Amino acid sequence: MRHIQLDVVIPEEYVWEFMAEFGKAFAIENSHGGIKNLKAVDGYYEHPAGWHIQVSVWENDESRFYDFLRGFCSERTISFREPEAQPVA
Fold first, then answer.
1. Dihedral angle over CA of 21, 11, 85, 44, nearest 10
2. Residue of 55, 67, 68 lying closest to 9 (CA atoms)
3. Domain tally, the chain
Protein backbone atom coordinates (compact mmCIF):
# COMPACT_ATOMS: atom_id res chain seq x y z
CA MET A 1 0.00 0.00 0.00
CA ARG A 2 1.27 3.49 -0.77
CA HIS A 3 0.80 7.01 0.54
CA ILE A 4 -0.70 9.65 -1.71
CA GLN A 5 -0.10 13.36 -1.26
CA LEU A 6 -2.93 15.83 -1.68
CA ASP A 7 -2.74 19.59 -1.95
CA VAL A 8 -5.82 21.64 -1.00
CA VAL A 9 -6.45 25.38 -0.88
CA ILE A 10 -8.28 26.64 2.22
CA PRO A 11 -9.28 30.24 3.03
CA GLU A 12 -6.96 31.73 5.65
CA GLU A 13 -9.63 31.91 8.37
CA TYR A 14 -10.10 28.10 8.27
CA VAL A 15 -6.47 26.93 8.07
CA TRP A 16 -5.90 26.10 11.76
CA GLU A 17 -9.39 24.61 12.09
CA PHE A 18 -8.72 22.39 9.05
CA MET A 19 -5.40 21.20 10.47
CA ALA A 20 -6.98 20.35 13.83
CA GLU A 21 -9.93 18.49 12.31
CA PHE A 22 -7.70 16.63 9.83
CA GLY A 23 -5.43 15.58 12.71
CA LYS A 24 -8.36 14.11 14.63
CA ALA A 25 -10.07 12.50 11.62
CA PHE A 26 -6.88 10.72 10.52
CA ALA A 27 -5.29 10.10 13.93
CA ILE A 28 -2.61 7.41 13.97
CA GLU A 29 -2.92 4.59 16.46
CA ASN A 30 0.17 4.20 18.61
CA SER A 31 1.57 0.68 18.93
CA HIS A 32 1.70 1.14 22.73
CA GLY A 33 -1.79 0.51 24.00
CA GLY A 34 -3.82 1.92 21.13
CA ILE A 35 -3.25 5.58 22.03
CA LYS A 36 -4.00 7.77 19.03
CA ASN A 37 -1.66 10.55 17.91
CA LEU A 38 -2.99 13.42 15.84
CA LYS A 39 -1.85 13.23 12.22
CA ALA A 40 0.06 16.34 11.20
CA VAL A 41 -0.23 17.98 7.81
CA ASP A 42 2.87 17.66 5.61
CA GLY A 43 3.18 21.37 4.93
CA TYR A 44 1.39 24.61 4.20
CA TYR A 45 2.16 27.90 2.49
CA GLU A 46 0.39 31.12 1.60
CA HIS A 47 -1.39 31.38 -1.74
CA PRO A 48 -3.31 34.36 -3.24
CA ALA A 49 -6.59 32.39 -3.03
CA GLY A 50 -5.98 31.17 0.54
CA TRP A 51 -3.45 28.71 1.92
CA HIS A 52 -2.16 25.53 0.30
CA ILE A 53 -2.20 22.65 2.76
CA GLN A 54 -0.38 19.45 1.85
CA VAL A 55 -1.45 16.18 3.44
CA SER A 56 -0.68 12.53 2.82
CA VAL A 57 -2.98 9.61 3.44
CA TRP A 58 -2.86 5.92 2.67
CA GLU A 59 -4.19 5.07 -0.77
CA ASN A 60 -7.16 3.20 0.73
CA ASP A 61 -8.09 6.36 2.75
CA GLU A 62 -8.30 8.61 -0.31
CA SER A 63 -12.10 8.49 -0.62
CA ARG A 64 -12.44 8.95 3.16
CA PHE A 65 -10.28 12.09 2.84
CA TYR A 66 -12.52 13.43 0.06
CA ASP A 67 -15.57 12.77 2.26
CA PHE A 68 -13.85 14.59 5.15
CA LEU A 69 -12.93 17.54 2.92
CA ARG A 70 -16.39 17.69 1.34
CA GLY A 71 -17.99 17.78 4.82
CA PHE A 72 -15.52 20.38 6.11
CA CYS A 73 -16.22 22.65 3.15
CA SER A 74 -19.98 22.11 3.23
CA GLU A 75 -20.23 23.06 6.92
CA ARG A 76 -18.45 26.34 6.16
CA THR A 77 -20.02 27.01 2.74
CA ILE A 78 -16.63 26.82 1.03
CA SER A 79 -16.55 25.56 -2.55
CA PHE A 80 -15.25 22.00 -2.92
CA ARG A 81 -13.33 20.54 -5.82
CA GLU A 82 -11.79 17.11 -5.47
CA PRO A 83 -7.99 17.55 -5.41
CA GLU A 84 -5.67 15.56 -7.64
CA ALA A 85 -3.65 12.84 -5.95
CA GLN A 86 0.10 12.59 -6.51
CA PRO A 87 2.03 9.44 -5.53
CA VAL A 88 4.61 9.90 -2.78
CA ALA A 89 7.91 8.14 -3.34
1. -80
2. 55
3. 1
